[in-house]
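Now for today's protein:

——
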Amino acid sequence: MLPLVAGLVALCGVVIVGVIDATDLAIARTSLQSTADAAALVGAESFDPARAVFTGDALEIQLTNRGVRRAVRGYLRDVRAGVRLDAATSSDGRTAEVTVRTAWRPPILSEFLPLRIAVTATARARSVFGVPD
């Protein structure tokens, strides 16, 4: 009877560690996605006001890859340590696309889970002035 109880306690311990680690990974992923969303917004607002043009009811802006990248790097440097920028671009000149990554480590080290997992998040944002298309 005692080995059965000891086995059950060990199994419960493994399940508890797994649940804690999985929850922490989900929270880290959500936090990284929020960082990517905010960085994309910063990139979408990195346009040069001198190059903006009025067309009808709307203000047309032009984003550059260099401007988006510079703005996002500055934001990540000021806000979030441990987050690396994979890409910050604007393929159409209106939308900023940002991909960031970080390495997650389980809070409770376990032989059943890897010691590091790469977590990546991508976000897109666009600044719209006036009446949208």
